[in-house]
């Protein structure tokens, strides 16, 4: 299992603490330093079953500067949204856990972290 984090984020720190408490095996990806590329974003979206606008932090200053609230949310605009996430990784919702069963979750709650753990048990 892998968890995408921003160390400054309290939800990320909480998720890591719970993973440790539960004895889960995981790797950490600091996605602001190790920015996911287009293919990785597409893959995690497929695993999440979500669209890029669903994992975009629209309240961030960068989102407002880009005018993301006004961008279309359809198949034709999908690539544009993914490109924005690659170019501005601070826009990616966090933390994201990719579980061993090939699924993923936006793990902002303890319940979501526990779900990821249960999906990653042998």
Question: Overview of this structure, please?
Answer:
This protein is an alpha+beta fold and 122 residues long. The protein has one domain (2-119): 3-Layer(aba) Sandwich (Glutaredoxin), CATH 3.40.30.10. Helices cover 40% and strands 11% of the residues. It contains 5 helices and 4 strands; from the N terminus they run βαβαααββα. The protein has a 4-stranded mixed β-sheet, with helices on both faces. α1 (10-21) links the parallel β1 and β2 (27-30). It is an enzyme of class 1 (oxidoreductase). GO terms for molecular function: arsenate reductase (glutaredoxin) activity.
Keywords:
40% helix; alpha+beta; 4 strands; four-stranded mixed β-sheet; Glutaredoxin; single chain; 122 residues; 5 helices; arsenate reductase (glutaredoxin) activity
């Amino acid at each position: 299992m892998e968890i995408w984090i921003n160390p400054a984020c309290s939800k990320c720190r909480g998720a890591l603490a719970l993973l440790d408490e539960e004895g889960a095996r995981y790797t950490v990806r600091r996605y602001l330093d190790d920015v996911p590329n287009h293919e990785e974003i597409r893959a995690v979206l497929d695993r999440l079953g979500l669209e890029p606008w669903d994992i975009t932090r629209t309240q961030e200053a960068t989102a407002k500067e880009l005018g993301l609230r006004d961008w279309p949310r359809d198949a034709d605009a999908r690539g544009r949204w993914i490109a924005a996430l690659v170019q501005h990784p601070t826009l990616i919702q966090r933390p994201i856990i990719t579980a061993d069963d090939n699924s993923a979750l936006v793990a902002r709650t303890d319940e979501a972290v526990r779900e990821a753990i249960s999906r990653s048990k042998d």
